[in-house]
Design brief:
The complex is a heterodimer of chains A (115) and B (118).
Chain A: E1 4-7, E2 10-13, E3 19-25, E4 31-37, E5 43-49, E6 56-57, E7 65-66, E8 76-78, E9 87-94, E10 96-97, E11 100-101, E12 105-106, E13 110-114
Parallel strand pairs in A: 2-13
Antiparallel strand pairs in A: 1-3, 3-8, 4-5, 4-9, 5-6, 7-8, 9-12, 9-13, 10-11
Chain B: E1 3-5, E2 10-14, E3 19-21, E4 24-26, E5 32-39, E6 46-52, E7 60-61, E8 64-69, E9 74-79, E10 88-96, E11 106-108, E12 112-117
Parallel strand pairs in B: 2-12
Antiparallel strand pairs in B: 1-4, 3-9, 5-6, 5-10, 7-8, 8-9, 10-11, 10-12
Classes of the chains: A mainly beta (115), B mainly beta (118).
């Protein structure tokens, strides 16, 4: 019942390439997130957004950038990929209503390998 | 700062048995939300169960239930009648309630990998 979609599912690219990981949701959620999941499976927040034209850096320093031009779309871009960027990237969204926080809905993830 | 600790990196349980995954957290807030998420191998992370801190009653979803001990800041997940499909990483998460004056933080534990033995 995926209402949040990530593409591509798998990506192998060479060092120095520019890439964009796509994330779209159809639930009208205001809040969106990007997490990097390390091999030990721990989740690290790298970017989030409260809504259109809002973007914030997360707890983990990242060389990636994000944009939020439309509510449903939250792409993540790496200008110059490096092997250290090899990881699983998870996109998530949630409602953002006063006094009633909702759970996160996650996409299927993008597994990125930089050679 | 809030923290979430899952002290069991891996656990195993026999099929049809019951298993409990532990989670403790630290916060100075009185109102917040707690969640358990499940991430099967190579599959989407999904919500298993959630608990609102102001509710005394433990949440239950079919074979999944929690033991929420607010004073002890403990939020364990019990899986009854374990099935092969329960094999996954399980993440405990804390989310503070919304406020205009602070950031909306969601804190995840490091996860517990659950193996189901046939």
């Amino acid at each position: 019942e995926a209402d949040i979609y990530q593409t591509p599912r798998y990506l192998v690219i060479g060092t120095g390439k520019k890439i964009t990981l796509e994330c779209s949701q159809t639930m009208g959620h205001d809040k969106m997130y990007w997490y990097q999941q390390d091999p030990g499976m721990e989740l690290h927040l790298i970017h989030y957004s409260y809504g259109v034209n809002s973007t914030e850096k997360g707890d983990l320093s990242s060389e990636s950038t994000v944009s939020r031009i439309r509510t449903e779309h939250f792409p993540l871009t790496l200008e110059s990929a490096r092997p250290s960027h090899t990881s699983q990237y998870l996109c998530a969204s949630s409602e953002y209503r006063t006094g009633n926080n909702s759970p996160l809905h996650f996409g299927n993830g993008t597994r990125l390998t930089v050679t | 700062a809030q923290t979430v600790t899952q002290s069991q990196p891996e656990m195993s349980v026999q099929e049809a048995e019951t298993v409990t995954l532990s989670c403790t957290y630290d916060t100075s807030e009185s109102d917040y939300y707690l969640f358990w998420y499940k991430q099967p191998p190579s599959r989407q992370m999904i919500l298993v169960i959630r608990q609102e801190a102001y509710k005394q009653q433990n949440a239950t979803e079919n074979r999944f239930s929690v033991n929420f001990q607010k004073a002890a800041k403990s939020f364990s997940l019990k899986i009854s009648d374990s099935q092969l499909g329960d094999a996954a990483m399980y993440f405990c998460a804390y989310r503070q309630t919304y406020s205009m004056n602070r950031d909306d933080k969601i804190i995840f534990g490091k996860g517990t990998r659950l193996h189901i033995l046939p």
